[in-house]
Structures are given as structure tokens and as C-alpha cells.
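[step 3/7] fold_predict: job queued, chain A
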Amino acid sequence: MWRDLVLAVGLIGICAGGLALFLKTAEVAGDRRSGVPAAVLVAIAALGVLAVGLAVTRHGRVPVRNRGVTRLAGVPEESAPVLDVPDVGAEALDHAAVDADGFEHAVAALCARDGCTAVEVVGGAGDLGADVVAVTMDGRRVVLQCKHYAEDNRVGSQDLQRFGGTCFTIHEADVAVVVTTSSFTAPATEYAATCGIICVDGEALAAWTDQLAPAPWDALAPDPTTPVA
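[step 4/7] structure written:
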């Protein structure tokens, strides 16, 4: 392509040089009567230069269709996102053997095992209380907060209040669940009952894991309109 371009530029230069030489010769000869023929020759030479330029442009141009095909050839087809949910197995569900992040993945694995779709682990900085989100088989959106605590570190009412302030309004939960490896204080369970948040303590978690109890979203959630005694 570059060789053709150089050749074309050379041809254009030759034509222009010949035209200049012709005009200079005509002027030296003093043949002023040939003004009209000279103008005709100038026009012919100019058309020749233009024709060469157009030929080069047409030869060096890459068709738009081919350019588009080349650009899009390496673009992969769209595919569904792959969710980072571990396989459900004994190690995945060993809550005592994992850290806080591993516990979130273990809870996500339980959700996937029990038929949820669109299971995502979303915990981290700025999660506003949601660690795992999922959709049940009947289409309800479940938002879970995971508390990987030691047995003597109970989940308090402030934890529940922070989660209660975002789970429904921000995360649009149909079912809100707090899962812990420890237990809940009495004020925490009272607040949860008022807001309709399901509390799963260490004992209930073990039963859920061993399939001795239904999944939290299948259990009867407290009625948020029922006043606390």
C-alpha cells in the first residue's frame, strides 16, 4: 500500500513538473497566440493529475464493511454472568472452619442448595448491610446479613437496627434474614419481630445446614404489624 502511494505521488510530481516546463517554454517562445491551446492543455494536465489522485485513493481505501468485520471479529458473544458461589459440600458448609468472608460464601451455598437463583455474595465495604442476595423459587428477593461471631459474642439490637434501616428500603428485600454462628440478645429479637426480620442463630443454622429445618424464607416470618408485648 505504501509503495503504491509513493509511486502515485511521484507520478503527480512528474505531471506537475511537465506542466510547469510547458508553460515556461511557451512563455520564453513568446507565442502569446497559443494562450487558448495552452489553457486547454493545462486543463487536460490538471484532469490527469486528478485522475491519478482518485485512482490512488480508491486503490488504498479499505472498505468500511471489511473494517467493521475486522474490528468485531474478536468481540465475544454475551453470556450470562457466572456467580461466585462455592459447591455445596461438607467443607463449604463447615461454618466453624471458615472466616467471615468464607461464612458469607457458605450461606450463599445454602441458598443455592435450597433452590435459590441469582445468588450473589455482595458483602464488603459499602454493602449497607447486605452480604448475600438471592431469589427464591417463587420469585421473592432474599437479603441476608451474615454475622460470623464467636459463641460469646451475641448479635445486639444495634446490629439489627442498622440492617433494618436498609434491607427493605435500600435492598428491596421481600425476605430479610440475619444469620449468625452465635445468638441474639433479647432486644435484638424484639426489634427483628417488630420489623419482620428473620433471625437465624447458631442452633437454627446447624439445623438448616443439616436439612433438619426449612430454609429461613420458607419459615413463617414474624408479622411486622404485631405489637411487641
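[step 5/7] annotate
The first strand starts at residue 117 and ends at 121.
DSSP finds seven helices and five strands in the chain.
exit 0
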